[in-house]
Amino acid sequence: MKEIPVTIGICAYNEEENIENSVKSVYRQNYEGVSVSEVIVISSGSTDRTDEIVRGMLAEYPNLRFIPQERREGKNSAINLLLDSKRTEIVVLLNADNTLYDENTLSNLIRPFSDDKVGIVGGHPVPTNTKDTVAGFASNMLWALHHRVSLLHPKIGELVAFRDIGTRLPVKSQSDEDILRMNLERKGYQSVYAPDAVIRNRGPENVRDFIKQRTRVNIGERYMKREFDYDIPTWDRDLLFSAVLDSVKDLGFHPIKMSLTVAMEMYSRMKATSYVRSDKGDMGVWNPVSSTKKL
Known about the structure:
Blueprint: E1 4-12, H1 19-27, E2 34-44, H2 50-57, E3 64-69, H3 75-85, E4 90-95, E5 99-100, H4 105-110, E6 118-127, H5 134-152, E7 159-163, H6 177-186, E8 190-201, H7 207-228, H8 237-251, H9 255-277
Parallel strand pairs: 1-2, 1-4, 2-3, 6-8
Antiparallel strand pairs: 4-7, 5-8, 6-7
């Protein structure tokens, strides 16, 4: 298969515990059908050892590039800087607190781009949280639903690859993947879900953080609907109902934890809807959820 050149971008803010593992997971790939031209780490105003750790890796990996931002201006600002600095048409976005699951993740993510009609591809996030706690189960159920919805209607998030068609992101918005996807689809490109491109992430470890994170995400999605009249697949009730039924196959039947997860998500969506109706503004720069930073 012809090798597809890609740039891998990793956006980071105070990720000293995760950044090395995230970068190294890229270099453990088998690269079948992929040529990694460069790996670019954007560190946005980090105040911990993130910058020091990345600089210490530059000699080991010749195609690793480091671009620090003096001030933290939000992920969209970091992505814009990445897009203005990269050398390839295809760009992969990897969060600094995530790792590629196995050596085939990148190849599985990039393979669909052999079709010129494909504009953006989403990976399959799988949390490292235990299912024993309410918050841990909720994180697992959330991503199981994401997976099941994406099999029917791709929901792009956490790990994405896309063609750069000149889109630059509004820095006062927190939506990144959804804006990229929307612009590509409106130009006639297709969105694809790659279930074998597995990414490991960490969900919130307590109920408070779960609601905080989900409220923030839902605020961004509601602003997408208001500002661009763009529908997010996970707000489709029919898709969600089907996904909830199918998630039992993935998680087993746990009626109490499932009911609590649904209740927390509904509460988060109600808070987000109220926030947007009050026009308080999107969260371009948000407070990190600390319990998600221990992959």
